Amino acid sequence: MISELTNELLKENDFLKKELSKVKNNTDDVRNILIIGKTGSGKSTLANIITGTDKFREGKYTVSETHHIQAEKFSYEKVNYHVIDTVGIGDTQLTEKQVLDKISEATYSVRNGLHQILFVTSGRFDQGEINAYELPKKAIFDENVDKFITIVRTSFPNFEDEQECQKDILLMRKENKGLTEIINSCNKVIHVENYPMTANLSLRFYSEETRNSSRNILLKHLSTCQETYKPQNLQELVERIGNSVSIKEQLEQELVILKRQSQDISKENESDLTSRIRKLEKEIEQQKENIRQETKEHIMEKGVN
After folding, report:
1. Dist. CA 281–CA 180, nearest whole Å
2. Which of 256, 254, 246 is nearest to 291 (CA)?
């Protein structure tokens, strides 16, 4: 859908026609990997390890650096992956609107289904981490989600020692009954070391070595996760918000083009273009509010507290 004001501008500017013609839906055959976990669990670091990049902003300790959905595509052994790092659920700095925005963004990013959910924990698995999973599980997924969950235990120096990994799993089982149920029903538990990158050359070499080894373990596992998960709950929420999301994305693309044009426009036309930009921004915010409301109603209908 193209807004009336952009239709008007298109009549005047062939450049915009060419730019909008480049906008296509991404139909690549990709395996969607959703990363979830409590604030400070190391989700963004793990995303960097898997993708082999530094594009995901990493935090330190329990400080949340992720306030927005971050995503990156990469290929491994001729398979395309799409890694989505979700908002740190439980982040008290986020408003209700922001949480709803991120849930809807995560939902729409895996609208064609997903292949695996990486549930990240640093080992001290408490009720807060269980709650971090329960919200998206009830709001987006269903009771069959467990077999699509891989628990990724981060910050484990002995991650390449199978016996030490098994000992750690036993300790996690003893620590929390709720965690025991998740471990019993999930796809697999994987141990990695997500040692932070540093300017110190000797430590940096160790960081790179451990990250590469961890990446190999994760990618070897992901290569076995070929089934696509498309729960009814996910499809229902996508149907509720899909139209508004599509309109919002189109309007955002138009806004980018208009702002690009504003850099070269003459002074006499500046006021008119500014007015059009402001109108687009209001239309975008209205679509965002529609998405929030539909997401909130969906969550309430599913009985998520």
Report:
1. 48
2. 246
Dist CA 77 CA 111 (whole Å) = 24
Please tell me whether residue 196 adopts helix, strand or coil conformation.
coil
Number of Cβ atoms within 10 Å of the Cβ of 233: 19
81: enclosing H helix or E strand: strand 79-85
Number of residues in the chain: 305
What is the tens place of the pLDDT at every residue in 144-193?
898 999 999 988 999 999 999 999 999 888 877 777 888 888 999 999 98
For domain 31-222, say whether CATH 3.40.50.300 is its number: yes
Contact 118, 102 (CB under 8 A): no
3-state class (DSSP) for residue 226: coil
Residues 76 and 79: their CA atoms lie apart, in Å, by 5
Please say whether the beta carbons of 291 and 251 come within 8 A. Answer: no
Amino acid at 258: L
Could you report the per-residue pLDDT of 11-31, keeping only the tens digit for each?
A: 545 554 454 444 444 445 889
